[in-house]
Amino acid sequence: MSRALIVVDVQNDFCEGGSLAVAGGARVAADIGALLHRWHSKAVDAPAYDVVVATKDHHVDPGAHWSLKPDFAESWPVHCKVGTEGAGFHPNLDPQPFDEVFYKGEHEAAYSGFEGRTSSGQALTDWLRARQVEEVDVCGIATDHCVRATALDSAGAGFATRVLLPLCAGVAEDSTAAAITEMSEAGVEIA
């Protein structure tokens, strides 16, 4: 049985100073970066992951997902535009240990990492199953949006799923609490 860590959308635009910043994003990036460093260096206290992957918002022209007058529910300011600094991983996060990166939302809204594909076109579910992954931990940004969607899709695909809440940043207290409830009711462990 293999376990995977999915690091969701820890990108510059979702951290302080970005176009769609989430409070605490830079701290989460640093904390995940420290965990990845321990894992990559095989430290004594390293988490037991067989593979570690990341997802990235990767927008070219996502249509109504971007808006000059966003409602912050279905439409958002321009963010994670391909080729911009905002689309890059936050500098507090060391991308070196990732076994693969899954890009989502080129021409549409995409919240779940399970909508993402590798640069060669492989879907996240297929990639994980090819490596006999049965258990998945999820962390990243934002708890109430892309982390939520990724965790729900993970559980829906049959993976034993856990969200590492201290390694997540949420947009708002109420929507984060609602997301935690929804994930728990779907069988996702909240750790």
From TrEMBL:
Highest taxon, organism lineage: Bacteria
Record InterPro entries: Isochorismatase-like_dom, Isochorismatase-like_sf, Isochorismatase_Nicotinamidase
Domain Isochorismatase-like span(s) in chain numbering: 4-190
Any matching Pfam family: Isochorismatase
Keywords, alphabetical: Hydrolase, Metal-binding, Pyridine nucleotide biosynthesis
Involved pathway(s): Cofactor biosynthesis; nicotinate biosynthesis; nicotinate from nicotinamide: step 1/1
Name recorded for this polypeptide: nicotinamidase
